[in-house]
Design a protein that fits this description.
Number of domains: 3
Radius of gyration: 24 Å
Shape: globular
Number of strands: 0
Helix content: over 70%
Largest sheet: none
Structural class: mainly alpha
Strand content: under 5%
Length: 477
């Protein structure tokens, strides 16, 4: 089940809200059990045959967490290592075993490459479970003795299949004590409706354009079409994934939980480092705190610090998928981050902000090509076309040029809205409203925001009903 479906919006969410809020506030444990049951149903609707895998993962982390109270350091460490091995073993088998077998087969070994279906959400809920055990081992969180509450934390439906990756320390208090207010409910609904609109109206349109460009044959892929496709996918992946995060954060807020932001307008970044402080924040902070810092971070020799960055970004690439293109994507970012940190830092700080932003966006757009392309060879060929090195006949170039004009004119409204929505205009407006001395400004703007969000939702829902199914990009990870 996905958020952008009639089943979820018209039935699942409506029934859940009705049942949840029929239970009095003082019976929070009962409300938690309602959320748990609906979360299990949510996951089972789209992957019931892998529900056992989610339960096994939670069981491993629950038992390991209980053992973190052991007073014998050696035994405690052994159990911690076994828990990490169990988590990574499950993830490794379902996500990477086939990739590893294909590598061995390519070296000439007589081995059958298995076809293993990737269980939905396994990368996200595995990392959540691991963060709980790591924090429990380090003494950074309380041990959860109620297995149902740990299961709710990991399986909570808003973030279960595509994040954000929520740490237990951020929600442990809310599991036992949280407030439900009308303001929180309406803010959550507004966030959900606007996220739904981003997915249906912006990501969907940009996805259609990107599909046309990336599926164009060698004879038709001109530089113009390649750039239009790259720009379209740059917008698509942002509005697709940030839309899911918006919807997840909004849904959690409806039920009294407050998740941290996962995106902070990444396309206004003026460096690659700045970009990764704004994009998929929950993943980058996970690798920073649980891999980069334990390796020594930057508080070590330059050689080891460079090694640490390479390790983190190769793992980040692998986390996204068992393909050489993802590994290359991770190494690509590692190289630019190392260049910024150790070689170009002083030079970049002297450049005009607009030039720094332009260079950053070139790096980011080129990196997204590896995400969207079918494989590494396709990505490299596409990048070759972007710099004008793909030979195309005059007749094919004319056809491609007409196609570019059509894609720009046909979707000019979406292009303009994407550009505007990618800029931090909303935070600027909120700040102006908060600093306003006019007492009517806040209430009026709040009403207008609700009306606008509802209008976006209605248009998006009509588009959903009359359109075709369009899953979220990050479901594949």
């Amino acid at each position: 089940m996905v958020f952008s479906s009639t089943v979820f919006i018209g039935f699942f969410l409506s029934v859940l809200i009705a049942v949840y809020f029929c239970i009095p506030k003082r019976f929070l444990p009962a409300r938690n059990m309602v959320l748990l049951v609906f979360s299990i149903l949510f996951y089972g609707f789209g992957g019931v045959k892998y529900l056992w895998l989610l339960l096994v993962s939670v069981g491993i982390n629950y038992l390991a967490g209980l053992c973190m109270n052991i007073s014998r350091p050696g035994l405690k460490k052994l159990i911690f290592i076994l828990a990490m091995a169990g988590n990574l073993g499950l993830l490794g088998y379902y996500k990477y075993f086939g990739f590893g077998a294909s590598i061995i087969a390519s070296l000439g070994a007589d081995i059958t490459v298995p076809s293993i279906v990737l269980p939905i959400g396994i990368s996200f809920y595995t990392f959540q479970g691991m963060s709980y055990v790591i924090d429990a081992y380090l003494g950074n969180c309380k041990i959860q003795k109620n297995p149902a509450y740990l299961l709710l934390y990991i399986s909570f439906f808003p973030q279960l299949v595509a994040g954000p990756i929520v740490r237990y320390v951020d929600v442990e208090e809310a599991l036992h004590h949280r407030e439900h207010t009308l303001t929180g409910f309406t803010d959550g609904m507004i966030r959900f409706m606007l996220g739904f609109g981003k997915k249906m109206l912006l990501a969907g349109a940009m996805g259609e354009i990107a599909d046309i460009a990336f599926s164009a044959g060698d004879a038709h892929l001109t530089a113009g079409l390649a750039w239009v496709g790259a720009f379209a996918y740059t917008f698509q992946i942002y509005f697709d994934f940030s839309a899911y995060s918006d919807m997840a954060i909004g849904l959690a807020q409806i039920f009294g939980f407050h998740f941290a932001e996962n995106f902070r307008y990444p396309y206004v970044a003026v460096s690659v480092t700045d970009f990764w402080r704004r994009w998929h924040i929950s993943l980058s902070t996970w690798f920073r705190d649980y891999v980069y810092f334990p390796l020594g971070g930057s508080r070590c020799s330059t050689g080891k610090a460079v090694r640490n960055l390479f390790v983190v970004w190769m793992l980040t690439g692998l986390w996204h998928g068992a393909e050489w293109s993802f590994i290359l994507w991770g190494v690509y970012y590692a190289v630019f981050l190392i260049l910024e940190k150790y070689l170009l830092k002083n030079l970049l700080e002297k450049l005009p902000k607009l030039l720094r932003w332009s260079c950053t966006m070139l790096v980011v757009i080129a990196a997204w090509v590896f995400f969207r392309a079918d494989n590494t060879s396709h990505a490299l060929h596409y990048l070759t076309a972007m710099i004008g090195c793909n030979p195309v006949s005059a007749a094919d170039a004319a056809v491609s040029g007409g196609q570019v004009v059509y894609l720009l004119k046909q979707h000019w409204i979406e292009w303009v809205v994407c550009i505007i929505a990618a800029m931090p205009i909303v935070p600027w407006l909120k700040e102006r409203v908060q600093n306003s001395t006019r007492p009517w400004c806040g209430p009026v703007c709040r009403v207008l925001s609700m009306v606008f969000a509802f209008g976006v939702f209605v248009v998006s829902y009509i588009w959903l009903v009359t359109g075709s199914f369009n899953p979220f990009i990050y479901f594949q990870f």
